[in-house]
Amino acid sequence: MGDVPILHEYAASGNCYKIRLTAALLGTPIERREYDIMAGETRTAEFLANVNANGRIPVLQVGDRFLPESNAACFWLADGTHLVPYDRFERADMLHWMFFEQYNHEPNVATLRFWMKWIGEANLSDAQRLQLPLKQAAGAAALKLMDEHLSAHDWLAGHDLSLADIALYAYTHVAEDSGRFALADYPAVQSWIVRVEAEPGFVAMGA
Amino acid sequence: MGDVPILHEYAASGNCYKIRLTAALLGTPIERREYDIMAGETRTAEFLANVNANGRIPVLQVGDRFLPESNAACFWLADGTHLVPYDRFERADMLHWMFFEQYNHEPNVATLRFWMKWIGEANLSDAQRLQLPLKQAAGAAALKLMDEHLSAHDWLAGHDLSLADIALYAYTHVAEDSGRFALADYPAVQSWIVRVEAEPGFVAMGA
Asked: Are the beta carbons of B168 and B105 closer than 8 angstroms?
């Protein structure tokens, strides 16, 4: 297991970026393999059989084992480090924000970004078009919840930056890409974004 | 912290049941406080201010601290026990299945159960009605992925039952409630359900 972990990814995906950011903050080297999701490269028979039966990136390859789900891959990288709180309650509270990210934030903030910037509003299905206002409202509620918490705390869980901040930074800092959210509405989130970007080792999404 | 944790819940919710099942398998006593979500009892000003600003159950109260997100509450209960694999990769792989549950399984299998059995098909909005076939297909894909994995493994992560099995058992074993899934289509899932229910300390959802 002295091998360098391999990140199977699509670089513009915030879910993939979370893993690169975690590795960078830890100083852990990773290899990167790029797939063009728009060309279906994660739905080929070979990808489904060998990398992820769920047809999704990111997947972190550790030796000959494959770990799907961005937040699980971040946890593998950071387990036992300062990015995972040592205190039992704070560790679970970090996971609370990471599950919130996947349930309340990503399907709204990230999906709207993908629909509006990658697919394009003109190409949306009727089912997607009817969901636009619902996802906009749910995304705004998720950002508001973060803003309220961050008005009283520097970080989402515990007393320092943790995987919770990395997981939620990824799509929050590009939330305006969808044209449906304005970060100026969430001043405590804006201050937190500045704090995350000042962390030693921080790398930008496009790096 | 010698206090018994308090589960703020709606008993028919699979997300709440996960926490009761985890506590039961560990022999950990918990108190239960019931809220009627259909009557808006988790959206009152008092609930939002004191229990969960996200207006959702379950929330696990530990002393004077509140932990939302079902899978995070399960992690707090089980951290350091046999329900969380000791091996680093297996521990992250358990989280992989728990994030899969919240992203790919719950919004389809559980949401269809809620829409069809609680709200009723006649009362669905246009946006919900257009999503029915999409959620049915996505839920079937999630069950098929579990079935393929469980055809070759007794448990989802590692070599024993873990929180991954508890998290996915909760809504899988009642997937047929929506009228949109047949568990007979997933024989390895059916065998795994029998194994989960044979665990010492197992409690049923209605208990």
From this structure: yes
Rg of chain B on CA atoms, in Å: 17
Distance CA A150, CA B70 (A): 22
The chain A residue lying nearest B52, using CA atoms, is A145
Same domain, B38 and B100: no
Whether B1 has a pLDDT exceeding 70, the answer reads no
Is residue A207 domain-resident?
no
pLDDT one-digit tens code per residue, A113-150: 999 999 999 999 998 999 999 999 999 999 999 999 99
Q: Would you list the DSSP string of B32-65?
A: EEE--GGGTTTSSHHHHHHT-TT--S-EEEETTE
CB pairs under 8 A between A and B: 108
Instruction: Give the mean model confidence (pLDDT) for residues B183-192.
Output: 98
Q: Any idea what the CATH number is for the domain that residue A47 is in?
A: 3.40.30.10
From CA B196, how far away is CA B207, in angstroms rounded? 16
Name A7's bridge partners. Answer: A32, A60
- A1 inside domain: no
C-alpha B102/C-alpha B87 separation (Å) is 23
Residue-by-residue DSSP string for A93-129: HHHHHHHHIIIIIIIIIIHHHIIIIII-GGG--HHHH
Give chain A's domain count: 2
- In this complex, is the C-beta atom of B137 within 8 Å of any C-beta atom belonging to chain A? no
For residue B71, give the nearest of A65, A82, A91 by alpha carbon. Answer: A91
Which candidate from A67, A76, A100 shows the least CB-CB separation from B69? A100
CA angle A98, A99, A100 (to 5 degrees): 90
ipTM of this model?
0.97
User: Are residues A143 and A177 located together in one domain of the fold?
Assistant: yes
Do B10 and B71 sit in the same domain of this protein?
A: yes
